[in-house]
Design a protein that fits this description.
Helices cover about 35% and strands about 20% of the residues. The protein is an alpha/beta fold. The strands form 4 sheets. Strands 12-14-18-15-17-16 form a 6-stranded mixed β-sheet.
């Protein structure tokens, strides 16, 4: 049975097509429209999916599933005072789908937002029994949920509901620091390492928003942000350092709260030590590292844990069986045919140049993992500046290393054996040797690469290692700030032409 899962009308619209335990195709709308975090579906993405089905000799789609329940969501919007949203027909999924596809697809089933999150991580995991934690800004009403899953059954054992939302608070603080909510939270995470930890400031911020009387509850509804917020002992003095210090202490508080959720999961799901984690907050790789070290060593996180991944989750829930996720790994989107460009890329790296890779199927998720990547030699002292100039990025944002899995523990204090989807940070043992991939606190968001994960990319790094003795490369996404990752051949050629970086 072919099942099409859809996420749209919030942010980062996406589709996923599955069949009998296999993921056939998955893609983000933004890669086709060119609009970062595009909330709208587009026809070209569906056409790509349809072409893929035809090429592989498969017939039509049996069921179409949507990732949340729109009428329940409208009740929450009513509670939030979002009256224009409540009475709008444009934000109804079927109406939007008809506008894009002319009535070709009819939604057969709607699945709860957090159930879609839970299903996305559990049904792609290696576990037949697991606890599940989902933390995001907001679903219909749920903001945090804890589940027990066994076989194909998921049981919700606890939830926190709107307006009490850890994800909404983190997004509000992102906006307070002059960044874009639901998009720039990872920038706040990067800023945190540049700030000063202050126990008094932490206490004040925590008490201003959460208080100490009720677990994981907010004192106020932050749906509209907190742009006028100033902690009593640390007013905004117009300096950048103020922002870094606030970011540092917000991140610390966020880690405290996440740890509380996982502690609660241990209490409520004593049947297993396995953990599957999902929701937008699961992209906070600093917090993830603490959880996997201190609470759940056997933790699985889908490489696309946010709302886009829920297009996979709602389809998987209806399918009711585990998916062979590692058949393709995160590489599920548009396919650029051709041999992986090992020799061409290594040649450019040895010259000290930045070089792009656009080859094979596009990654499904927010992070480039070798098929839509901008690469460089991690040993170069001037590489960060070159990268930041090309990508128009802030100086304080870190770059990631892609390291051969068998050498990862030689260079980093890894919290886990594998980090193939770039979901954890680890201290670098030799920051002076590899300055380009070390953050200001000497940590790195590590991607481990094995032959099984990505044969072409593994061969490239292996060849670079033979030539230089360095078993890794610097890896960042093939895009510039504010734009989606390159998707197809045309976009790759345009990147080369505009920025003077060779893309193979």
């Amino acid at each position: 049975m072919k099942i099409l899962g859809i996420n749209a009308l919030n942010h980062d619209a996406a589709i996923t097509l599955i069949e009998d335990g296999r993921i056939l195709f998955a893609a983000h709308a933004e890669r086709y429209s060119g609009i970062k975090n595009d909330s709208n579906l587009n026809k070209e993405m569906f056409e790509d999916m349809e072409n893929y089905i035809c090429k592989n000799g498969r017939g039509g789609i049996d069921k179409v599933v949507y990732f949340e329940r729109p009428w329940i969501k409208k009740l929450r919007q009513l509670k939030a005072g979002q009256y224009s949203e409540v009475f709008s027909l444009k934000n109804l999924p079927q109406h939007h789908l008809d506008e894009v596809m002319g009535g070709k697809y009819k939604i057969d089933k709607y699945v709860d937002h957090h159930l879609s999150h839970a299903s996305s991580t559990y049904f792609t995991s290696p576990y037949d029994e697991s606890a599940i934690v989902c933390i995001d800004a907001i679903g219909e009403f749920d903001t945090i949920t804890i589940w027990y899953a066994k076989g194909n059954q998921l049981e919700k054992r606890w939830s926190q509901t709107y307006p009490h939302s850890l994800g909404l608070w983190y997004s509000a603080m992102t906006q307070r620091l002059g960044l874009k909510p639901q998009e720039d939270e990872f920038i706040l995470m990067g800023m945190a390492a540049w700030g000063r930890q202050d126990d008094d400031l932490q206490s004040i911020i925590y008490n201003d928003f959460f208080g100490y009387h009720k677990e994981l509850e907010l004192k106020q509804n932050l749906h509209r942000g907190c742009l006028d917020y100033e902690p009593s002992i640390y007013p905004d003095n117009g300096t950048e350092q103020w922002k870094f210090d606030i970011a540092a202490n917000v991140q610390t508080i966020c880690e405290w709260q996440i740890a509380k959720v996982f502690k609660k999961a241990k209490e409520l799901v004593p049947e297993t030590d396995n953990m599957c984690y999902s929701g937008g907050v699961a992209l906070n790789c600093v917090a993830n590292s603490n959880v996997v070290k201190d609470q759940y060593p056997k933790m699985w996180i889908l490489p696309n844990p946010g709302d886009a991944g829920s297009s996979l989750g709602c389809a998987a829930y209806v399918g009711g069986q585990h998916l062979d996720f590692m058949e393709h790994g995160a590489f599920l989107g548009y396919d650029i045919k051709g041999k992986y460009p090992v020799k061409q890329v290594v040649k450019e790296l040895l010259k000290g140049n930045l070089v792009g890779v656009a080859n094979g199927r596009a990654e499904y998720g927010p992070r480039a993992l070798g098929n839509r990547s901008l690469l460089a030699d991690p040993r170069g002292k001037d590489i960060k500046q070159k990268m930041n100039t090309i990508k128009n990025r802030q100086e304080f944002r870190p770059f990631a290393p892609s390291v051969l899995e068998e050498h990862a523990h030689e260079i980093f204090d890894m919290p886990t054996k594998k980090s193939q989807f770039m979901q954890y940070v680890a201290p670098c043992k030799y920051p002076k040797k590899y300055p380009a991939i070390c953050h200001v606190d000497n940590t790195s968001r590590v991607q481990t690469v094995s032959k099984e994960d990505n044969p072409g990319y593994y061969k490239l790094i292996k060849e670079f290692y033979k030539e230089t003795g360095c078993p890794m490369v610097l890896n960042t996404s093939l895009n510039i700030k504010g734009q989606p990752i390159v998707n197809d051949e045309k976009q790759a050629k345009a990147f080369t032409k505009k920025y003077g970086v060779k893309v193979f």
